[in-house]
Amino acid sequence: MKAWLIERRNDEAHIGMSDVPSPRMGPGDLLVRVRAIGVNRADLARRTGHYERLPASTDLPIPGLEMAGEVVALGQGVRGFHVGDRVMGLPAQAYAEQVVLQAAHALPVPAGLQWIEAAALPMAFLTAHNAMVTEGKVRRGDHVLVQGAATGVGMAAMQIARLQGAASIAGSASGGKLPKLAEYGLDHGFDYRTGDGVAQVLRASGGHGADVIIDMVGASAAASTLAAAAERARWIQVGRMGGGQATIDLDTMARKRLALIGVTFRTRSSDEIAALVSAARADLEEALASRRISLPVAKVFAFDEADEAQAFMRSGSYLGKIVLEGAKG
User: What is the CATH number of the domain that holds 237?
Assistant: First the structure.
């Protein structure tokens, strides 16, 4: 099969396409023909080895963490899936013609969703559901601050907040993005350039502050995140686009009785991921099928344009998901 491999050239990481053996399937696995691949910032990090701890069905350095495709074979003991089923999920090594996905980690693709649409969903919605519902314990009437609202996880989090009866608040350094974000769950948006972001969060929440913070930014927003948090807020640290090292006023954190919780897929066991997928499916499957929740696709690249897709991601000049089509043939 064809797959993209991480290669070292002149002591730098690159990706190149090669012919490689098909992946090995074990008990409880699905062998999936990849029809579309979601491109994520984690794919860029994997070039440096950041995600090498993720389980894989081959020793080859194939990047990619998100895809949608068609089941072509079932491993021993698989129940609930059949050859020909359309599935989506988060396998390791998704930049390939075929992947192995554990059946317990697979989500059915709702009828009517195109492959491109389906490949954009798993990473953002599984991450956001875990952060917002499982860890953030969002409740009806909560005020949710989303730091990094224009990311896929940010847009998914705002839509989940709305499903749960909570109101989402977010700022943008580009005011032109706010109308589009309002289509994806943003209730109270503001332009960071027009004033104090903390004051705007307090104004939007009636002086209460944010009960749940979904933080994709990290260090550069840490001080404002802490200042905008309500008493007994749940601060869920998801991404670190603004850096990974921050100084936090522990006295303020203690006074507010704030819970700071980190989330990642990198250190989860297979059983933990299965539980996460099951919980998200129970809460979101109907909304995904009815398109009450979705993600915009910013740009689609052909399978042989993976390097161009990653370069486009680095540019940051887009809103929504970047998707690769599956290999032709």
Answer: 3.90.180.10
pLDDT in tens, 33-56: 999 999 998 888 666 555 555 566
Question: Does a structural domain hold residue 208?
Answer: yes
Write the pLDDT tens digit of every residue in 309-328: 999 998 877 889 999 999 98
Residue 267 lies in a domain: no
pTM score:
0.93
Q: State the SS3 of 234-284.
A: EEEECCCCCCCCCCCCHHHHHHCCCEEEECCCCCCCHHHHHHHHHHHHHHH
Within-domain flag for 146? yes
Note whether residue 286 is domain-resident: no
Q: Where are any strands of DSSP class E within the chain?
A: 2-9, 12-19, 29-39, 67-74, 86-89, 98-102, 107-108, 143-147, 167-172, 188-191, 210-215, 229-237, 259-262, 297-301, 321-325
